[in-house]
């Protein structure tokens, strides 16, 4: 019994040292403890702890009984002294074993919490970095958009000036066309007038030609 308790205590001390210092075995120990705490593991651990606690209580009860019997007898019995020393050693070892078990459980819990906290902080840092990168990229995009807007405004002004120039040219062309139309109308009117005069002259010439013929007939 005592040899078994010493082996368990030494094993627990090794586990505590493995959990305290960051070594390659630390991940294996944490994985083993994670598996123990899943499924039926907690029930088995509680059962063992309760058994050890019952044995501890029995050893304490035996120590109290031996002390009471020694006080009542008024004399010290060597056998009772040996039994009392053995029970005291067993009680001390079992109490120390339970204490180390509690230390292992708390260390495992705090290491897991620390890992989760580190992961959360790392995720928050990555999120902040991505947010800052997004801000920088958005600022760069705004700068490029502003530059594009400036260039577009310049092009719009250039196109407006070209449009105004084309509008002026179109108005000048319309004025020229209107002047040519009026000129052509005047020429047509003059042409009609000349045609009328030509027709009148022809009529006069025909009348003149017909009058001498008529006079010749009369004379004959």
UniProtKB/TrEMBL annotation:
Keyword vocabulary terms for this entry: Apoptosis, Coiled coil, Endoplasmic reticulum, ER-Golgi transport, Membrane, Protein transport, Transmembrane, Transmembrane helix, Transport
Q: What membrane topology does the UniProt entry give?
A: Multi-pass membrane protein
Which compartments does it reside in? Answer: Endoplasmic reticulum membrane
Transmembrane region positions?
Answer: 6-22, 43-64, 84-104
Alphabetically, which GO biological process terms does the record hold?
Answer: endoplasmic reticulum to Golgi vesicle-mediated transport; intracellular protein transport; protein localization to endoplasmic reticulum exit site
A GO CC term attached to the entry:
endoplasmic reticulum membrane
Q: In terms of domain of life, where is this protein from?
A: Eukaryota
Main location (coarse class):
endoplasmic reticulum
The answer, when asked if Transcription regulation is one of the entry's keywords, is no
- Keyword ATP-binding tagged: no
- Show the segment(s) annotated as Disordered: 200-220
> Which InterPro entries did the record assign?
BAP29/BAP31
Record's function text: May play a role in anterograde transport of membrane proteins from the endoplasmic reticulum to the Golgi.
Q: Which family does it belong to?
A: Belongs to the BCAP29/BCAP31 family.
The name on file for this protein is Endoplasmic reticulum transmembrane protein
């Amino acid at each position: 019994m005592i040899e078994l308790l010493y082996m368990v205590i030494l094993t627990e001390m090794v586990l505590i040292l493995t959990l305290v210092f960051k070594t390659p075995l630390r991940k294996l120990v944490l994985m083993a403890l994670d598996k123990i705490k899943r499924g039926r593991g907690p029930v088995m651990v509680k059962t063992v702890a309760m058994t050890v606690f019952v044995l501890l209580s029995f050893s304490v009860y035996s120590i109290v009984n031996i002390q009471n019997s020694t006080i009542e007898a008024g004399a010290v019995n060597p056998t009772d002294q040996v039994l009392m020393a053995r029970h005291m050693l067993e009680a001390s070892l079992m109490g120390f074993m339970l204490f180390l078990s509690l230390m292992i459980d708390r260390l495992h819990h705090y290491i897991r919490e620390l890992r989760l906290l580190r992961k959360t902080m790392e995720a928050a840092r990555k999120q902040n970095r991505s947010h800052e990168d997004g801000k920088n990229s958005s600022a760069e995009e705004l700068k490029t958009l502003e530059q594009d807007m400036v260039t577009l405004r310049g092009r719009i002004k250039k196109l407006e000036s070209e449009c105004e120039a084309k509008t002026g040219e179109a108005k000048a062309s319309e004025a020229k066309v209107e002047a040519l139309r009026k000129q052509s109308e005047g020429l047509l009117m003059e042409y009609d007038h000349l045609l009328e005069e030509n027709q009148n002259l022809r009529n006069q010439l025909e009348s003149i030609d017909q009058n001498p013929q008529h006079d010749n007939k009369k004379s004959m």
